[in-house]
Amino acid sequence: MPREEINDLQLVGKYIQPETKEVNGVLMTKIMSNNWDKIWNFQAKPDDLLIATYAKAGTTWTQEIVDMIQNDGDVQKCQRANTFDRHPFIEWALPPPLNSGLDLASKMPSPRTMKTHLPVQLLPTSFWKENSKIIYVARNPKDSLVSYYHFSRMNKMMPDPGTWEEYIEAFKAGKVLWGSWYDHVKGWWDAKDQHPILYLFYEDMKEDPKREIQKILKFLEKEMPEEVLNKIIYHTSFDVMKQNPMANYTTVPTVLMNQSVSPFMRKGMPGDWKNYFTVAQNEEFDKDYQKKMAGSTLTFRTEI
Questions:
Q1: Domains, the chain, ranges and CATH?
Q2: What pLDDT does 9 receive?
Q3: Is 87 tagged catalytic?
Q4: Annotated catalytic residue: which of 87, 117, 150, 235?
Q5: What is the pLDDT of residue 6?
Q6: CA neighbours within 13 Å on the CB side: how many for 106?
Q7: CA 130 to chain centroid
Q8: Which range is the signal sequence, renumbered to this chain (predicted)?
Q9: How far is residue 90's CA from residue 93's CA, in Å, rounded to a whole number?
Q10: Per-residue pLDDT for 5 more than 70?
Q11: What angle do CA 207, 210, 216 make, to 5 degrees?
Q12: What angle do the packed helices 279-293 and 164-172 form, to 10 degrees?
């Protein structure tokens, strides 16, 4: 059945604004938590590459950069399929006929590139045992919050975000899917010295994509001529990706993602939070941030 025909509400009913259930204190959809044993026992391989992020931290952008690197800048090859079919989202389940992440990953030939939003403590242990390479991207909390809020408004496979005021409180308390932003970024930061993890910052990628892509190349042990690198920078720029149907999620049926509410690729610019936070909300957020990030060597820029 083609994707366009996924408009049977009965078929997608349990996926729309799904019920949630915690796994070890981290909020998940009930579908993920019911499938948890399978996710936890996922078998990684030594040549797997995992792109890990908290939600809305530049995941799709990083996926496109990596895919372009792996295909030596061949744009046609990178448009062979949707981002979510090229890089299985290991913990995510979708209504048929769309493929669930685990199914896609198990059928995929090696070397595989996959994606996750799992916090470090919930990552299937086989990734650590196999010493698989991981690229982690972190984005400042205020822009993450704004982006996640708008994404939750348009993506019917997410719980209803409620009002902006309610969402700020839920985010601060970690009562959103994949749990606390604070625990997530700190957990992966602490793991980076024990495992092959390249920890990148969204703001750095925006500021100097060439420098950050060179870090990825080095991490993947790849070399690239200057002209191919420049081609990758161009084709993974926000404006070009926004027009790419294989990266902008426009092939997902409106019943699941309504991009007229908010586009999947919305603004992609550090500092957009200033258009949403009131002075009081910002002060409260900063106070809470200081408390939760106390003792961590991790620092973020909220604008560039």
A1: 28-293 (3.40.50.300)
A2: 52
A3: no
A4: 117
A5: 45
A6: 11
A7: 22
A8: none
A9: 8
A10: no
A11: 110
A12: 10
